[in-house]
Amino acid sequence: MVTDLDRGLLYIAEHAAQRIAVARGGAGTPHRHIALPGRPAGLALTACGKRLYVASGGAQGEVHEVDTDSGRVLRSFLAGHTPETLVLGPGEDRLYVCNRFDATVMVLDLATGSQRASIQVDREPSRAMLSPDGMHLLVINALPNEAATVAHLSARISVINLATETVEKSIGLADGATNLRGICTSPDGRFAYVTHSLGRFRVPATQIARGWVNTHAISIISLESFDYLHSVLLDHEYFGAAGPWGIAATPDGDRLVVAHSGTHQLSIIDRKGMHEKLRALGAEARETVANDLSFMGDLRRMIDLPVAGPREIALHRDKVYVAGYFSNEVAIVPLDDPANMTSLRLAPRAQYRGAALGRKLFHDATLSHQNWLSCASCHADGRTDGLRWDTVRDGIGNAKVTPGTLHADQTLPLGALGGAASVRDDLEETGASLFQAVFSDEQLDALEQFLTSLAPEPSPALVDGGLNESAVRGRKVFDRLGCAACHSGAFFTDGQKHDLGTARGPDHGQPIVTPSLIEIWRTAPYLHDGSAASLGEAVLAHPGLNLQDRDLEDLIELLRSL
Question: Within 10 Å of residue 390's Cβ, how many Cβ atoms?
Answer without folding.
Answer: 18
